[in-house]
Amino acid sequence: MIDDRLRNLKKSIKKSVFSDLTFTEEHKEQIKSKISVMSIKSEEEIIIAVLHLLSQEKTGFVLNKMIRARGIQNYENNEGQLYMFLHRLEQKGYVETNWKEDDEKYYRVTNKGNKLLSLAEKKSKSKISTFKEILER
Amino acid sequence: MVGREQENVEESLTEELLLEDREAVINRMMDLYGQDTLQLVYSYVKNKEIAEDLTQEIFIKCYRSLHQFNRKAKLKTWLWRIAVNHCKDYLRSWHYRNMKVADEQARSAASLREDVENKVIQQEEDEQLASAVMELPDIYREVIYLYFFEEHPLKEISYMINLNQNTVKTRLKRAKELLKERLEE
């Protein structure tokens, strides 16, 4: 009985509740312009920045502050994501970690990471991705 | 037919994703799902201006996290999960709760309901249904909306709202009971 009526829900909500609700071109343009001014960097640029910064060992907290200072906002309010990313780099052997007495985890780039970095910087303009291996989970 | 089209859309979007043209992906997503997103958001916040603002934020959020999309879910399902979370965050926010309190003080608790009801031409049975659904408590309204209005399978709903399937089923059942009571009073 109620199931029968609910079959009309689509029609009824569209006719009434949603009748003056439209996602317009104007809405689209607003979003587009906001996106284009945001300084969101591609994942490749982030990898370069991170490997660069980790040539001297740092905690995740300090690293996060420094990449933000470079205008990379991807991990703003989303630090967990940065740690997951660091974990991935570690598993692939580009970064190593070290626990210090103060109970903090420090990250530092490995030789393998350095090689990747110099390779990446050489062809950072080309579209062929050095980072395919990292990007593909 | 519709299913096939959807698949093609998903395929082509995934290709664009591979090419890392994130702006193109978002533009396509707005074309395809903009209206549905706005409606979904409205079903949570029941206010046109706020729904428009939140929809904007959702697409920006989506753009930011596109690199996390793992292609296990459909792109739309993934977007829905972001949207649902964003709406719930808003409903839990300080801003919303304070606005609501102020609202209630100024206009009495019935104001929100009246907004919805005014839009609805009361007599028609169909529209009574719409208004009854909009008045359901959040947790019941969302499952009714996703299941009957958007016609998603239970499995996808469970992913979108991050609840196990049995809970979704139980809420659907309870929601129907509530609707029945209200409509048959």
Fold topology:
The complex is a heterodimer of chains A (137) and B (185).
Chain A: H1 2-6, H2 9-15, H3 25-37, H4 43-53, E1 58-59, H5 60-69, H6 79-91, E2 95-99, E3 105-109, H7 111-122, H8 132-135
Antiparallel strand pairs in A: 1-3, 2-3
Chain B: H1 2-18, H2 22-45, H3 48-65, H4 75-92, H5 94-107, H6 111-119, H7 125-135, H8 138-149, H9 154-160, H10 165-183
Helix pairs in contact in B: 2-3, 2-4, 3-4, 4-9, 8-10, 9-10
Short description:
Chain A has 137 residues and is mainly α.
Helix content of chain B: over 70%
The CATH homologous superfamily of the largest domain in chain B: RNA polymerase sigma factor, region 2, helix turn helix motif
Q: What is the CATH architecture assignment of the largest domain in chain A?
A: Orthogonal Bundle
Unreliable spans of chain B: none
Plain-language structure description:
The complex is a heterodimer of chains A (137) and B (185). Chain A is elongated. The longest helix of chain A is centred in the N-terminal third of the chain and has 13 residues, at 25-37. A three-stranded antiparallel sheet of chain A has the order 1-3-2. Chain A is built from eight helices and three strands, in the order H-H-H-H-E-H-H-E-E-H-H. Chain A is mainly α and 137 residues long. In chain A, strand 2 (95-99) and strand 3 form a beta hairpin. Chain A folds into two domains: 10-37, no CATH class; 43-135, Orthogonal Bundle (Arc Repressor Mutant, subunit A). With 185 residues, chain B is mainly α. Chain B folds into two domains: 1-107, Rna Polymerase Sigma Factor, Chain: A; 109-185, Orthogonal Bundle (Arc Repressor Mutant, subunit A), CATH 1.10.10.10. Helix content of chain B is 81%, strand content 0%. Chain B contains ten helices and no strands. Chain B has helices at residues 2-18, 22-45, 48-65, 75-92, 94-107, 111-119, 125-135, 138-149, 154-160, 165-183. In chain B, helix 2 (22-45) runs antiparallel to helix 3 and helix 2 (22-45) packs across helix 4 (75-92). Chain B is globular. Chain B starts with a helix and ends with a helix. The mean pLDDT of chain B is 82. At the A-B interface, helix 1, helix 2 and helix 3 of A face helix 2, helix 3, helix 7, helix 8 and helix 10 of B.
